[in-house]
């Protein structure tokens, strides 16, 4: 949306975007959703004088992962941007990716050898405990630090999962995304040889092959995790930054690596802080309030509760958030937006395609349409149902950061 | 949306799409629409716990014919797909078109000859009775069966209308759609010579010219229908099938040739059955329930009543449909969708551009927004107002047939 960029204007206004991860839900108890069940006097008060609506995270019927979900509310059309699997996994374990990096998802696996050829017998190495995984990654890290001109960076994930990053002394193109997974996707087959199209893809393939051989050699006496399967070769997408796209000096206040990673992809400054409660996040917000003009504050626990199907917990977290609202409003944001990146209905225990309530609080709203911040009350609101990537222009407008278009 | 295709996953769920043709309407009696006037206890009950909304068949202000109307709800953007007039007319009279066919609309017309040149004096041959038409088509069929390498297939329509198909021994390109109509669109002029661009178009033009001359010769003594004007030269559009696009094994239960034809264009299996009542269709649905995972059930009479401006009849048909709802629900469809292909308001006695109520019944809806399945109650629903071609992704999602997009 180049028109938007041509309309940007500076102002002192501050925008606060609070993302309650996976907030949208479906009725369970007494026909109510968690937002409807929660006692939220402060949100209720706010909803009555705010602009409400719902956003479609990606498109009708499409259930977003965290990547596309956040890209949408950050103002990037998630159907037009591909974040590779390796990159997302690397962000999830907290690796700060550079444009010189190739990020790859690794799985520890079990192979047996027939005539010297490895045959996959368990693609997940019996889901070894995370502590096992950490021991193995430490051991591998101390023995593999460089292959050709690539620095090798290893990081444990959960159970059998890890991330490997090849860091080169030069920028790497997305050509490496043509490299196939080495995971044969089925047992009783040998791992596949990595192969890609183009000079750098061939080089990365060769390095990946060497890496696999080194791992196999180093882990040959392990009972379960004696091999590494590689998937999702990818590079950091080349996104316009928040500053370039919206003229905003933006920061991210989040507790989970994945969301910090996504924010850093669009150039937000990641604020480091102690603790991981909502209170810790709000304290951090207060401390940084003078330093930025856009704040992305991410609350993870609503999503986790939804993923666990824990209706009561999700309701409780909403109530906890509600209690902090007066402190947040005391900062006097020019525009306060509360929404989610997607729905995580407790009855599905997973992300879903359902549209997500949005609340925009600013002096420049109609308001008076909705009694509460809930899925069904949001349907009555002035914003209607709109694509998530249209949210940012709305926030900029309400913050007085957009000029008139045309005369 | 190629992304959708990449997200398809198999599941045992079954989707039932019921199209009440032309269901949308405008208030007439007591300010109520037929849906609002009808007594529909079963639909009312369903509406309360379903997702409601309205679809825009093609685009704002655009009144669709049956072709675009159905393409939309079948998930194809009707603005991007052209179904030629000849093809639609052929589908309407029940000709099963192949990719080797050129389909053309014919009008019997009256000409008089001046210096041997035909001059059109009535473009519709006084709208001869359909029985007359059938007699003439039988006669022509017995005398014209082949021209060059094209088999000639003739089929009567109503009054002065008929369809002619040239069936070749090879696939015919859409190049033939450059051929002009021979109808001069006004009287006191000679018919136009058919001409098109490209080798096959020239050949088809030549065959069409020969056909016209043969018809003129064979009918020269007819008092009214002594000539044939040809319009809408077209070939079957090359559409992705429902199976390719959505991974669905789909069937069509309909009574009118046009709708069976449209369903066959997207590769649905057409179920043949005796009778033409709603009851006959429901019985067929029950019989076929185990054989498919998508069912398109088309009910025509709501549209016919609208076209006749018969408010009472339209209301009665809605009530008749309502009585079958318990039987339909007893099949336990994973997703039941009830909608129309367009509106046919009684006061217009014609199709219209108005958005059309949609109901999606599944365990994964918010529900509780609307009291009834009516135009105005649908406005309160969670689906909002959306383009018809977004309906299929929504149905797939509710049926658990779509994976998450991105991680």
From TrEMBL, chains A, B:
Keywords: Glycolysis, Isomerase, Pyruvate. Gene3D superfamilies: Alkaline Phosphatase, subunit A, Metalloenzyme domain. It is an enzyme of class 5 (isomerase). CDD domains: iPGM_like (cd16011). InterPro entries: Alkaline_phosphatase_core_sf, ApgAM_prokaryotes, Metalloenzyme, Pglycerate_mutase_ApgM, Pglycerate_mutase_ApgM_sf. Pathway: Carbohydrate degradation; glycolysis; pyruvate from D-glyceraldehyde 3-phosphate: step 3/5. This is Probable 2,3-bisphosphoglycerate-independent phosphoglycerate mutase. It comes from Thermodesulfobacterium geofontis (strain OPF15). The lineage of its organism: Bacteria, Pseudomonadati, Thermodesulfobacteriota, Thermodesulfobacteria, Thermodesulfobacteriales.
């Amino acid at each position: 949306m180049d028109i938007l960029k041509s309309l940007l204007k500076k102002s002192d206004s501050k925008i606060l975007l609070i993302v309650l991860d996976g907030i949208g839900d479906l009725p369970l108890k007494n026909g109510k959703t968690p937002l409807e069940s929660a006692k939220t006097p402060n949100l209720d008060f706010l909803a009555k004088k705010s602009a409400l609506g719902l956003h479609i995270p990606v498109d009708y019927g499409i259930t977003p992962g965290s990547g596309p979900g956040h890209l949408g509310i950050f103002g990037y059309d998630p159907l037009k941007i591909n974040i590779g699997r390796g990159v997302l996994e690397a962000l999830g374990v907290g690796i700060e990716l550079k444009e010189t990096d190739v990020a790859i998802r690794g799985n520890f696996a079990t192979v047996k050898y027939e005539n010297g050829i490895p045959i996959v017998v368990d693609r997940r190495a019996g889901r070894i405990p995370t502590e096992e995984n950490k021991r193995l990654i430490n051991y591998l890290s101390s023995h593999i630090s460089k292959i050709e001109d690539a620095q090798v960076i290893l990081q444990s994930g959960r159970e059998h999962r890890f991330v490997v990053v090849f860091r080169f002394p030069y920028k790497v193109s997305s050509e490496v995304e043509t490299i196939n997974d080495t995971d044969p996707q089925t047992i009783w087959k040998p791992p596949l040889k990595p192969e890609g199209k183009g000079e750098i893809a061939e080089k990365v393939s060769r390095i990946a092959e060497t890496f696999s051989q080194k791992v196999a050699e180093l882990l040959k006496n392990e009972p379960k995790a004696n091999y590494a399967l590689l998937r999702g070769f990818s590079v950091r997408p080349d996104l316009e930054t928040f500053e370039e796209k919206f003229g905003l000096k933006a920061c991210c206040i989040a507790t989970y690596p994945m969301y910090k990673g996504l924010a850093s992809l669009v150039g937000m400054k990641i604020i480091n802080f102690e603790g991981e409660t909502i209170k810790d996040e709000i304290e951090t917000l207060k401390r940084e309030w003078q330093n930025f003009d856009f704040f992305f504050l991410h609350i993870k626990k609503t999503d986790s509760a939804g993923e666990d199907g824990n209706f009561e917990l999700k309701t409780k977290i909403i109530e906890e958030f509600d209690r902090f609202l007066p402190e947040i409003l005391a900062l006097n944001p020019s525009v306060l937006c509360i929404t989610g990146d997607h729905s995580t209905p407790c009855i599905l225990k997973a992300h879903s395609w359902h549209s997500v309530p949005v609340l925009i609080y600013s002096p420049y709203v109609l308001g008076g349409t909705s009694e509460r911040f809930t899925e069904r009350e949001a349907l009555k609101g002035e914003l209607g149902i709109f694509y998530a990537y249209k949210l940012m222009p709305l926030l900029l407008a309400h913050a007085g950061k957009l000029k008139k278009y045309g005369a």
